Amino acid sequence: MVGLGPRRPPSRKGSMADVPKDLVAEIHKLETLFTVSPEKLKQITEHFVAELAKGLSVEGGSIPMNPTWVMSYPDGYETGTYLALDMGGTNLRVCEITLTDEKSEFDIIQSKYRMPDELKSATSEELWDYIADCLYQFIETHHGDCSNIPELPLGFTFSYPATQNYIDEGILQRWTKGFDIDGVEGENIVPMFEEALARRGVPIKLAALINDTTGTLIASAYTDPDMKMGCIFGTGCNAAYMENCGSIPKIAHLNLPPDLPMAINCEWGAFDNEHKVLPRTAYDVTIDRDSPRPGQQAFEKMIAGLYLGEIFRLVMLDLHDNKEIHIFEGQDVSTLRKAYSLDASFLSFIEEDPFENLQETHDLFSRKLNLTCTRPELELIRRLAELIGTRAARLSACGVAAICKKKGYETCHAGADGSVFNKYPNFKERGAQALREILDWPEKKNRRAEDPVEVLPAEDGSGVGAALIAALTLKRIKEGNLAGILHPENYK
Ligand code: BGC
User: Which residue spans adopt a coiled-coil conformation according to this UniProt entry (predicted)?
Assistant: First the structure.
C-alpha cells in the first residue's frame, strides 16, 4: 500500500498468515479508512494554502492566523534574567532563564508542576490561583522571601488561541485541548492572571504573552537561522511563522511598514472546521461530537496527542460491539469504555513492541484494560496503532508544506516540539515521507542526505523562546519602537 511507512520489522512479515480471513478483511477496511494517499495529501495542502491566506484577510477564515507582535528574530546578543511560565495542555512549567553575554548562550533553572485534570473544568479563579501559587513556590525556592525582591519580568506562554492587539494582551478566542472553564473565552486573560498574582503577592511583571509555537520559532531561529517555522505536535498541534505586515490585510489599518516582519500564530488546529477536505472517519466525528467544543479544531482532533489514544479506543470498542468479528469476545470491556482512558503513549508502546508475538502489547492490554488478546487480535491492534500514528504524521506534513508553499520556501528548517514529535515512534520519518510526496522531491541520493525542508527538534520554545521574546519586547520599549506594545493611536 502506498505511503504507509514501515509496516513491521521484516522478521514479522509472515505473521498475518495466521490471522483468520474475517479479521484480515477488517484490517483491510481499517487500512482504507485511515490511509491518506499522496493525491489526497496534495489536495489538503492546496486547500490549506488558501485557508492560511484567508485567515490573514479582512474577512477572515476558520484558521485564526493571529498576529503576535513578535516582530524580529533575536540576534543572539540578548541578555538579562527572565522568568518563563508555560501553561501547556498537561503540565505547568516555571523557568528562570539568564541570557548570558556569550552569543546565543543561556542558563536555565526550572520546575514542573502537574496540572490536575480537574483544573481543566474548574472556575477561572481556581485556575489563576493555582498558577499564581506555583509561581510563588518557584520564586520562594530560588530567591527566598517573595516580599523582598524586585519584580521579575515574565514571558507567559499561554498556548491557546488568543487575539492580541498588544503583546501583553490575550483575548481567549476559545479553549482547546479539553479545557472548559467558564468566564474566560472572549476575555483578556492578562488582568485575571495579574489579579491572582496580586492576591498571592507574587513579585512578577508580565512583559509578553506568547504562544508556544511563536516561542518555538524564536528559540529555534536563535541557534539556526534557517529555521522558518515553529511547530508543536503535542497534546495540541499548531505552528507559527514570520509574515510581512504588508501581507496581512486584516491589520492594514495600522499602517505598519509593509516589509516589517510579524510572527503569525496560525492556530492551524482549526483547519477545515468546515469539513471540506479532511478524510474524517466516523470515529473522528464521534470525538468531535463528544468534545467540550464540537465543531472546533477539526485538524487538531485528527493529529494531536490528546486524541490519538481516543481514536484508537473508539475503533476497538466498535470492533467489539458492532462488527461481526467481535474482538475480545465474551470479555468485560468496561475499562475500555471509559472516554480518554488511553493516551498517545499507549499507542507508542504498541508500535514499539519489539517481539514477534507482540508479547508486550499482550501484557499491556492485560495490565491496563484487563483484556486477554488472541494472537490475531494483537496483529489487528498493532496495525491499527500504525495506521492512526501514520495518518497523524502524514496530515501534519500538509501544514508544514502549506506554509512553505505560501512563503515560497523551497528549502528551510522547521523547528518542532511536543510529546508526539519527540516520543511517538516513526512520527518524524512518516512526516518526512509525506512531505516528499506532497512537494514532489526526487528520491534521496543517500539516507543521510538532507531533505530540502527538514522538520527538526526545536530549542525550548516555551522556556528560552519566552525569555527571548520578553527580552526583545523590553528592548523595543527602550528603543521607542512601540507597535503592538502601546495603543496604535499612540504609535507613530
Ligand atoms: C492551541 C494552540 C497551541 C497548540 C499546541 C492548540 O490546542 O490552540 O495555541 O499552540 O495547541 O500546544
Answer: none
- The CATH number for 80-210+462-490, chosen from 3.40.50.300, 3.30.420.40, 3.30.230.80, 1.10.3660.10, is 3.30.420.40
Q: How far is Cα 278 from Cα 391, in angstroms, rounded to an integer?
A: 11
- Span 452-463, pLDDT tens digits: 999 999 989 999
Residue whose CA is at the smallest distance from ligand 1 atom 9: 160
Say which of 86, 212, 284, 460 is annotated catalytic.
212
- Domain(s) labelled CATH 3.30.420.40 in the chain stretch across 80-210+462-490
Q: Which of 62, 159, 348, 462 is catalytic?
A: 159
- Cβ of residue 309 lying under 6 Å from some atom of ligand 1: no
Q: Using the CB atoms, write b or e for 21-58: b if 16+ within 10 Å.
A: eebeebbeebbeebbbebebbbbbbbbbbebbeebbee
pLDDT digits (tens, 9 = 90+) for 203-221: 999 999 999 999 999 999 9
Q: Active-site residue 462, yes or no?
A: no
Q: How far is the CA of 283 from the centre of ligand 1 (A)?
A: 22
pTM higher than the cut 0.90: yes
241 lines ligand 1 (CB under 6 A): no
